[in-house]
Design a protein that fits this description.
Elements: H1 11-24, E1 60-65, H2 73-86, E2 91-95, H3 103-106, H4 117-121, H5 127-130, E3 132-133, E4 140-143, H6 156-169, E5 172-176, H7 183-190, E6 194-199, H8 203-219, H9 221-224, E7 231-239, H10 241-245, H11 252-259, E8 263-268, H12 272-279, H13 289-301, H14 318-323
Parallel strand pairs: 1-5, 1-6, 2-4, 2-5, 6-7, 7-8
Antiparallel strand pairs: 3-4
The chain binds adenosine-5'-diphosphate and magnesium ion.
Magnesium ion binds next to helix 2.
InterPro entries: CobQ/CobB/MinD/ParA_Nub-bd_dom, MinD, P-loop_NTPase, ParA/MinD_ATPase
GO biological process, one term: negative regulation of cell division
Domain CobQ/CobB/MinD/ParA nucleotide binding: 62-282
Length: 324
């Protein structure tokens, strides 16, 4: 499935780095980007803002984005929003993937969708009529995407109006973005204060993430109004340390070096993810490695130091060592 990558020093990687340094020469990183601790791994780790529920800090709009599709954004949106809410924060998750509604499935509330995001924008219902409260965690609400095929229904003015209303009621708004740079993706990132840039450990995914970092840096509302830049965090999804050791995937260090934004988490590849989705349960609620990695990601985002887990191959048992 993944292209074989001979070694981190192979020529494609070097070409990518050169291209990137040319693209970014003029980019000035915000102060936030200079204040991270560096772990023993040599990877620059994210240091989020220390927050406690009800601390009165302004609501933050967090976009879960990527360059490439299918990297795990919706899986992450469900777990990140649920993880924040289970820490006691008032959280609203919004599905921006118009026409391809999925977040409601990941949160197990697809049968409770009556009104959606577009109904609210068009004034066909009140915001509180469209918000669906999670039954397991009442501080989490979600706003479902519309099933319409017309993506132009998401206007900047309409989305801005809804976001302004949500800012008054919630501490975090988590926006599940569609892939790429079309209308829905643009609206999902435009109002963001923070961005979780999801990438799989493969070159095409990382390269597209790099383009998206450029777009966030130049086309978001914060960039246009020249206010403090969006805080961008790197989240590596579907990581397999065994395949990295076999030189079939890019390592955490390579990806972090290439993208140059602080690492907030590494989510391992896990068979439980699909199982959880089928149950309508966010991965973070499970008991496997991916669940623990999502919990760590949320805590790092909230300003806590957490060691990186699941980035080295698991020791093989005696039988595996003998028979491979
Ligand atoms: N950590 C993971 N381990 C295994 N499969 C994953 C993981 N994260 C996501 N997936 C799978 O990848 C696919 C795409 O995930 P999804 O969250 O829908 O991506 P996106 O929203 O970026 O399109 C789904 O089949 C999902 O089950
Ligand atoms: Mg999705």
């Amino acid at each position: 499935m993944f292209a074989r990558i001979a070694s981190p020093s192979f020529s494609l990687l070097s070409a990518f780095r050169m291209q990137r340094s040319v693209m970014r020469r003029s980019t000035v990183l915000p102060a936030f980007h200079r204040s991270y601790s560096t772990e023993a791994t040599g990877v620059v780790m994210a240091k989020g803002t220390k927050r406690t529920p009800g601390d009165g800090q302004p609501c933050r709009i967090v976009v879960i984005t990527s360059g490439k599709g299918g990297v795990g954004k919706t899986t992450t949106s469900a777990s990140f929003a649920y993880g924040l809410a289970s820490q006691g924060f008032k959280v609203c998750a919004i599905d921006f993937d118009i026409g391809l509604r999925n977040l409601d499935l990941h949160l197990g509330c697809e049968r409770r969708v009556v009104f959606d995001f577009v109904n609210v924008i068009n004034g066909e219902c009140q915001l509180h009529q469209a918000l669906i409260k999670d039954k397991r965690c009442p501080s989490l609400s979600m706003l479902a995407a519309s099933q319409t095929r017309d993506k132009s229904v998401l206007t900047e003015e309409g989305v801005g109006r809804v976001i302004d209303q949500l800012r008054k009621e919630f501490e975090f708004v988590v926006c599940d973005s569609p892939a790429g740079i079309e209308q829905g993706a643009h609206q999902a990132m435009y109002f963001a204060d923070d961005a979780l840039m999801c990438t799989n450990p493969e070159l095409s995914s990382v390269r597209d993430a790099d383009k998206m970092i450029g777009i966030l840096t130049s086309k978001s509302q914060r960039a246009i109004t020249k206010s403090e830049a969006i805080r961008q965090f790197l989240l590596i999804t579907r990581y397999s340390p065994e395949r990295v050791a076999a030189h079939n995937m890019l390592s955490v260090k390579d990806i972090a070096d290439m993208l140059g934004i602080p690492l907030v988490g590494v989510i391992p590849e896990s068979e439980e993810v699909l199982h959880n989705t089928n149950l309508g349960q966010p991965v973070v609620l499970g008991a496997d490695d991916a669940a623990a990695a999502y919990k760590d990601t949320v805590l790092r985002f909230l300003g806590q130091d957490r060691p990186l887990q699941y980035v080295s191959p698991k020791p093989k048992g005696i039988l595996k060592r003998l028979f491979g």
